[in-house]
Amino acid sequence: MRPDIPDALRDIYEKVEAGERLSAEDGIRLYATPELNAVGYMANIVRERMCGNVAWYVRNQHINYTNICNKLCKFCSFYVPPKDARGYVLYPEDIQERVRRYLHVPITEIHMVAGINPKLPYSYYLDIVRAVKEVRPNVAVKAFTAIEWVQIARAARKPLREAMLELKEAGVSSIPGGGAEVFSDRVRGDLFWTKADSEEWLEVARTAHEVGLPSNATMLYGHIENPKEKVEHQVLLRELQDETGGFLTYIPLSFHPERTEMEQIPGPTGMSDLREIAVGRLMLDNFPHIKTFWIMNTIEISQVALWYGADDIDGTIQEYEITRRTYEETRQFLTRKQLMERIVEAGRDPVERDNLYNVISTEREVREAQPVGIPGELPVLS
Ligand code: V47
Fold first, then answer.
1. Which mutation among 253, 255, 298, 317 tests ligand 1's pocket best, with the greatest number of atoms within 8 A of CB?
2. Nearest-CA neighbor of 78 among 110, 113, 115?
3. pLDDT digit string (tens) for 14-24?
């Protein structure tokens, strides 16, 4: 359905139709307009031009190897400070146990990120990557946010490039997009002042691309940031992508205030989640993919987001600890069948991918997934 393009957005629409780059000022107008459907419609033009009717998903597993973190970010409910009794570290044998839990599922990607735990030596990072590859040699390890990479290089007492090459050799094949938050000194000063700033985050991404590790980029929204700061963030990402071409996917992350120091703020809504996807698609014209991370956006909003610029819905997940429904419950997953059904219901063609967007399967239907028993645990669906 084509909504009327309001006169106030007509010049932007003409640029989108002509495949021209939008300016920062255009981006700010896309945030300001009440005409969300028109913004979504324009984003969908770009999305379909780049990806047709495809909606990508991946069979993946998330592993968060430690919750101990010395960064004290106000928006985070996952971390505990060093010495807190609730702190944990997964050692290589624990990581292997987690990987074995889902060996019966044909997972192609393991997404491994965590807090900044200054006690962990450089060898730990090499060991956990090797531990995954030992149990599942063919899985792609997507590991460590830019903030962790800064810590890894510090622990290694080596230049980042060298540490990256060694971890690549150990089995890391791409880098997730976390830790970027919003590239704004004002927001950083209030919410995450101990963490890498935009220059450092971008330098980690640049180095990754130079050593042949493709990466993602995120932006955390729905807290104290403003549209100008978000557009500046997107323009900085777009400029780096012009330079390196190493980014795969942009993922706007919907802030979940519950159990954080900021739980008094209301957080984003379904409408703002859709707008972030759409503005991201329109501004980041050189990013091949835009992801709606269903864990944070909900699967329901993610279905709609597939018509607002998103072409990727992430994956089966299995367990997720960074944002969770309750403190105790970390199981959050959709089976492949459920993911495919939601995509088909949304009117898109599900395509299973690996971490580099190689096609694994274009099946549209699967038989009922078989529950697989793990002694002492709930059944797991493949
Ligand atoms: O860097 C922390 C964010 C990120 C909260 O690359 C929060 O494919 C919402 O980056 N509410 C980690 N977000 C997750 C991440 C990610 C997720 C999915 C896919 C990919 C990818 C990357 O989560 C952190 C931070 O920005 N975060 N706390 C919160 N309360």
1. 253
2. 115
3. 999 999 999 99
